[in-house]
Q: What sequence folds into this?
């Protein structure tokens, strides 16, 4: 398989061309023939015109790439090595939503042939690839894993907005259903991953490795958020505490904040769902999730308390929320906890304006029911700096004073303006 791909006798296909799939497809397309497959025809047209729908890649990223973008199954059939990179979200009850990955498996089941390879990159709970995806593929294809086709799992490690840690510079975990498949899959990924690959002993190990990467971060941030709540009651600035503690060589440098996005705020639920299915109710992981999911309400409550103490007129109070995406310097609004903050503020009958230089107002309206404010107003009672986009860093104390009332609160969630805001009440998490 590897040799045929290198010699361009066979093609590799990437199914799902979002934040994860498109960078992978383009990187491989610099070395071998690639088919980029996505069910969204509008997205396909954009990529055919060298436009990344996710706004992560510039047009030059498409240069020198031997790739065909399509939503046609007949074209997809030309591939022999398939990489699945579709989303794996949770529903409104935080239950894993496997519909995208199951539908991708159905697609594969319709197109694979004997000798083909399939590698899943979508984040799932341990066992999902072999227990949920394989039966779907085999029902539609009539083929059997190992004997007729090979399967593997290689967790994605794409970090939106990060131009330093990319697919080529991060060690890639790979796994396969047998020794032969592991070796072939590893060699294929070594074509593009300069940092090298780590060969996991099984598909389940690779699945578990991915899910605990984000679970670990989630728990550490939850600890910081709980510390922030405690230190607020003591009138201690959390960032000053972390700065002091950080002078010790082995202190882990995490910070409090809203935890959203399609990874950290989602992946732990896949693990706890599978755990419960096996008869064990997670305690530590879900405790961390509860803290992080509750931070939006905590922020809104602190804003309301300040307004009641200083104006008492809630219905006329104005709040400006700066930032709506799930993290700084990206356009991705999926699972943005800023939306939860806005929802909580509006539930208190507060007037809320929202700005963001990267987010789409139409997407926010469709996903969360609110739009961006075209022009920043005056006389705000509170400004919440929810997402510290780079373009916000030029704002100074005078700017914030010019658009707020004298007794206004500047709630800087990530401490970006610590020691800068002097003429208004300042608070961070």
A:
């Amino acid at each position: 398989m590897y040799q045929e791909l290198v010699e361009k006798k066979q093609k590799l296909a990437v199914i799902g061309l979002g934040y994860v799939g498109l960078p992978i497809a383009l990187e491989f397309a610099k070395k071998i023939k690639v088919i980029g497959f996505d069910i969204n025809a509008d997205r396909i047209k954009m990529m055919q015109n060298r436009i990344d729908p996710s706004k992560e890649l510039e047009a030059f990223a498409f240069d020198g790439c031997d790739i065909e973008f399509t939503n046609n199954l007949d074209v997809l059939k030309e591939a022999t090595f398939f990489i699945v990179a579709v989303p794996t979200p949770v529903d409104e009850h935080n239950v894993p939503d496997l519909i995208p990955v199951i539908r991708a498996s159905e697609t594969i089941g319709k197109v694979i042939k004997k000798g083909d390879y399939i590698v899943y990159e979508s984040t799932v709970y341990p066992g999902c690839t072999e227990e949920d995806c394989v039966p779907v593929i085999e029902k539609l294809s009539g083929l059997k894993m190992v004997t007729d086709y090979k399967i593997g799992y290689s967790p994605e490690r794409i970090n939106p907005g990060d131009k330093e840690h990319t697919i080529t510079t991060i060690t890639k975990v790979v796994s396969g259903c047998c020794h032969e498949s592991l070796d072939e899959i590893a060699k294929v990924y070594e074509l593009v991953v300069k940092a090298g690959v780590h060969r996991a002993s099984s598909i389940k190990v690779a699945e578990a490795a991915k899910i605990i990467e984000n679970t670990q971060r989630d728990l550490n941030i939850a600890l910081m958020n709980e510390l922030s709540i405690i230190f607020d009651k003591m009138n201690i600035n959390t960032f000053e505490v972390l700065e002091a503690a950080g002078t010790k060589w082995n202190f882990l440098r995490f910070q409090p904040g809203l935890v959203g996005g399609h990874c950290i705020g989602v992946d732990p639920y896949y693990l706890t769902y599978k755990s419960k299915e096996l008869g064990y109710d997670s305690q530590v992981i879900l405790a961390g999730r509860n803290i992080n999911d509750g931070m939006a309400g905590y922020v809104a409550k602190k804003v309301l308390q300040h307004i009641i103490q200083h104006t008492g007129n809630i219905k006329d109070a104005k709040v400006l929320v700066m930032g709506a995406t799930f993290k700084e310097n990206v356009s991705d609004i999926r699972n943005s906890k800023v939306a939860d903050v806005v929802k909580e503020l509006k539930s208190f009958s507060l007037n809320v304006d929202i700005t963001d230089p990267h987010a789409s107002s139409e997407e926010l309206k469709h996903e969360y029911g609110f739009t961006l404010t075209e022009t920043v107003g005056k006389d705000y009672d509170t400004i919440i700096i929810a997402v510290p986009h780079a373009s916000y860093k030029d704002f100074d104390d005078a700017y914030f004073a010019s658009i707020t009332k004298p007794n206004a609160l500047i709630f800087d969630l990530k401490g970006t303006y610590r020691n800068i805001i002097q003429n208004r009440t300042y608070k961070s998490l």
